[in-house]
Amino acid sequence: MTDNFDLNKRFRVIREIVDLNQADFAGKLGYKQSTISKIENNKTPVTDDIINEIHSVFQISKVWIKTGKGSVYHFDPNDDESLIEYLKKNTFSLT
């Protein structure tokens, strides 16, 4: 498998992590649903612009998107808003 194939597979995993269908995911990123479909089917590469948009919108680590290594979520511990979003996505209730 090529790195591009793995990157495109992670792209779909990201969409599933954020629990959105292709149309809603595309809308949040400012792309067409057909572009998302082409990326997920390895017909279109994942560009740096898309990676940057995913990072900005969903706080997904750029390193994880590109390599699959490290934590999926990224947050800046000096940015309260970023930390709150990270905690919302990575905590669960014991009740």
Concise structural overview:
The chain has 95 residues and is mainly alpha-helical. The chain has 6 helices and no strands.
Description:
With 95 residues, the chain is an all-alpha fold. The protein has one domain (3-90): lambda repressor-like DNA-binding domains (434 Repressor (Amino-terminal Domain), Orthogonal Bundle), CATH 1.10.260.40. The protein is built from six helices and no strands. The chain has helices at residues 3-17, 22-29, 33-40, 48-58, 62-67, 80-90. Helix 2 crosses helix 3. It is globular, with a radius of gyration of 14 Å. The model has no long low-confidence stretch (mean pLDDT 81).
SSE layout and pairing:
Blueprint: H1 3-17, H2 22-29, H3 33-40, H4 48-58, H5 62-67, H6 80-90
Helix pairs in contact: 2-3
Features:
95 residues; mainly alpha; 6 helices; 434 Repressor (Amino-terminal Domain)
Structural class: mainly alpha
Number of domains: 1
What does the overall shape look like? globular
Please mark out the parts with pLDDT under 50 across 5 or more consecutive residues, or reply none: none
The protein's oligomeric status is: single chain
Rg is 14 Å
Strand composition percent: under 5%
SSE topology string: HHHHHH
Largest sheet: none
Question: Which fold name fills CATH's third level, the topology?
Answer: 434 Repressor (Amino-terminal Domain)
State the CATH superfamily name.
lambda repressor-like DNA-binding domains
End-to-end gap: 43 Å
CATH class categorisation = Mainly Alpha
Helix content: 55-70%
CATH-defined architecture: Orthogonal Bundle
In DSSP terms, counting alpha (H) and pi (I) runs of 4 or more, how many helices?
Answer: 6
Count the strands?
0
